[in-house]
Amino acid sequence: MKRMNTDPTEYVVFDVETNGLKSKQADLLSISFYKPDDGKEYSKFLPLELNRKIVTTHINGITEQDLVGATALTQLEFDRIVEEFELEKRIILIYAGGNFDASFLSAYMKRHRILGFEKLNFYNFKKNIISSRFSHGNITKDNLCSIFKVDGVKTVHSGSNDCKLEWKLFEKMEGYFYLVTEGNGEDNVFRLNEDYIIPASLLSSHPNLSYILSERPYIECQSTPVKAFEIDAKGIEKFQTNITGMTIEHLINSMLDVDVQNSRQFLLKNKLKLDFIGKIPNGVLMMPMSFNPDGTVTALHKEDMQMEKRINSTNKNLKEQIRPLVDFIKYEIFKNERILSQELVVDYENNILALCDLSTDKTILEIKTDNADALAYKEQFFYEAKGRAIYHLKMEWVKDRNTDLLKKIIFHLSFVDAHVGTPSSSNWTRGKREEKRARRITEIQKYLSSSDISLVSFTNISSPIRLQCKNCGYEWFVGYAVLEKKIPNCPKCNPKIKGRTRTTISKEEQMKHRADNYYEKILQKSNHTIVAMNYIGAKDDVDAICVTCGYKWKSRADHLVDRCWCPICKKGKS
């Protein structure tokens, strides 16, 4: 687990204040930069352009009076900021959900035709906070500042102050990654280390784990329906939080008379490897209860007695109807063998552990009370199975369309094939990217299938897409956004004509055409791993970007054709 460098000479902190959450609809109200090594600051208010009035004053304190006399950012001003703050040489730190700050700056620069955004290297250090995708919006910068004892947090935010707070927080985090786990009323924050074995169940719920486990194998998964069991939902409730999951799993365990495995000592010892940092309130209170051998539960607090009755009433009605399902699991899936519950499986090579809901020597079965596809849990299935047959039981909660009341529950039982991906998908990061690219190619091909246009090449949605006319064979490039709006006509078969005179290709268009051809040549030679930008001529420099590792460098155009590889990736392989 590589620790990040926190040398202040390598960073600039960036923060924005906005008039909403969507960069194409809400105005950028201010931008702020901060150099932590010498304390240099820059802040600028920007005038309203997209909106009539400010609606976020309660968040950022910016009023319309503040914007009186404000001017739009110009290319000259931006170039000066780049030079003074060394933006092209340093990593630009942000802390935001979904790269919020960078997205707003990018959209603003596009609207004002300011060049240079692609040369900036942003790092969102929220990636270092590994929290659940189902978190309750409490993993905020302010809450983290509180547990890391960073002073200076204000109720009303400002870009300049936020920049300094973000740097102090980044310093306090010392380049480590932090795991956030849900507790009773509070989330627990721990500092991760290489000794801690990651539970496989977190791989789907905590997406930022991918940044520190990027070298784990990429898992492919297919599921095949086996059988479905439908029951009447009368007298059955679906409870909040994880009560439904725990109680239904307990009910099925009791009906199967499973042998519960006790791995508490191992799990506790593993958890003690983590360094506890602090707690963040989450507003979610769990119900402490004990599980009885007959499938019922007992609340440990008097105030939960009414909930206990509702849970046990639901389980009673379930128990009366799911006997055929339980018998099928016992005799058809597990062949009447002794069934274990909570069997511990550890993959020491990848530093991942898993607990099986139900298992025997030959088979595992995972119980999920949602209706998500097996793909959502493919890694958990893979690490639990360790070569065994995999089954997935999921629940579909069907409501009446007219009354919105629960009408029926369908238990779907599927066989799952989860295995290590193809050689081209040797690790999680590369495999995930290839999976997404392949899916997008299929979507585009289907989209174009009824037209006279076919897809030649696709790298990603940020890069030009090469199309070909089926009638004349002419090839050209379009942007993804343009293609999304409308299938274009072939420029050769349908030339733009002004009056009766056909337009000729300008020098700028010729240059663009040559640049597009060069771009495609580099993509093909590098197997879609290198993007070349700003092509002028064979003897001039181009900007090259490695899609695999993100490294950027300059190379003479003809030299890049001859040596079409990333120097960093090549060095790593040698």
UniProtKB/TrEMBL annotation:
Residues 10-179 form the Exonuclease domain. Keywords: Exonuclease, Hydrolase, Nuclease. GO terms for molecular function: exonuclease activity; nucleic acid binding. This is Exonuclease. It comes from the Bacteria. InterPro entries: Ribonucl_H, RNaseH-like_sf, RNaseH_sf. It comes from Roseburia inulinivorans DSM 16841.
